[in-house]
Amino acid sequence: MAIFPSVIDNQTFAKRDDTQNVKKLPTWGRNNYVTFLNWIAVVSLLFLTPLLQFYFVFSMQEADGSLTQPLLDFLKGRPLASYWIPNTTKLIKAAKLYTFWTVFQILCALFVPGRTGFGQVTPAGHKLKYKVNGLNCYLLTLLVFFAGSYFNFWAPTIIYDYWIELSVCMQVHGFLLALFAYLKAKYYSSHPEDNKISNSVLYDFFLGVELNPRIGDFDFKLFYNGRIGIILWTLVNLSCAARQYQLYGALTNSMVLLNIGQAVYVADFFFHEDWYLRTIDICHDHFGYYLAWGDTAWLPIMYALQAPFLVRHPRVLSTVECFLISLLFSLGYLIFRSANNQKDKFRATEGKAFFFNQKPTFINANYVTADGKQRERRAILITLLI
After folding, report:
1. The pTM is what?
2. Tens digits of residue pLDDT in 117-150
3. Of 81, 197, 337, 378, which residue is most buried, by most CB within 10 angstroms?
4. Residues 6+ apart with CB under 8 A from 273
């Protein structure tokens, strides 16, 4: 994994008024002018995504995993309150639990040791450094989760037990974070030269204004993209596995395969966290509702739907099914890892690397940064060994 050797001093770039940036920035990223159709799409997503997230959780916990039954019952006149009535005591406990979780991850991000990594040069010419300690934070979190369960500080099923209430906390956190990100970008932007502003407040709120919002060296995008949601994904799976064992006295092989496969993906993410600094999420996506709410509320719920479903619908796979699922997963993982390794090696060697004894094919892309410099990017066409 290549580590870039230098970093540009961010203080050398003077802060400018955001309104002026719209006129001075060259055309890059999304459009400054939002059409009516784009605005409708954004409003629809802001309204529908929270409803969809909660409906999936609600259906899983209160309708035995059926996505159609609650809707059909509602159309027949059955009130949703007959399924689930908010429990104030459980909501308060879930809020405390989720606050502990968030604060713990912030402390881990700040104080757990890790090496220094560097991202790609931003459109305004910044090359930011990051504390790459995600794998250490992930392992420490797992240790604390297992230790707390062993010593009865909490039940291993705690996340499953409070899944609906925690989903509400995630939604609130995600909305407040998106609002904070928008206000910070407007009044205290870390790098105004990299901001993207349009003629629509809702559009900017949804897609984000700041490219790399920070407080000191604490990077919001890396933290929420790579810590809050993804680590919680593993804990949701473990908690569901504990609940299945509690109910039936054993784990199904489908639950075991699910936990192993998705844990491998998460561990791989953190093992190659330095590579992640040079991907679309970090290099191009701005930090707004799309990432803030998405990573906080969407990812740990929607990515982990299989585990709570298997709690209520345990499935024992045949030997052939286990083999085929494992084979398909291994093949997909091999392609995924090979492609990402190629992209990172290609960037680190500026296109001079060879893959499977072949010279990589790439496309040159030229652009002008906010400081007026001509820059070049290369887009690699992935080579597959067949």
Report:
1. 0.83
2. 888 888 888 888 999 999 999 999 999 999 999 9
3. 197
4. 117, 132, 134, 135, 226
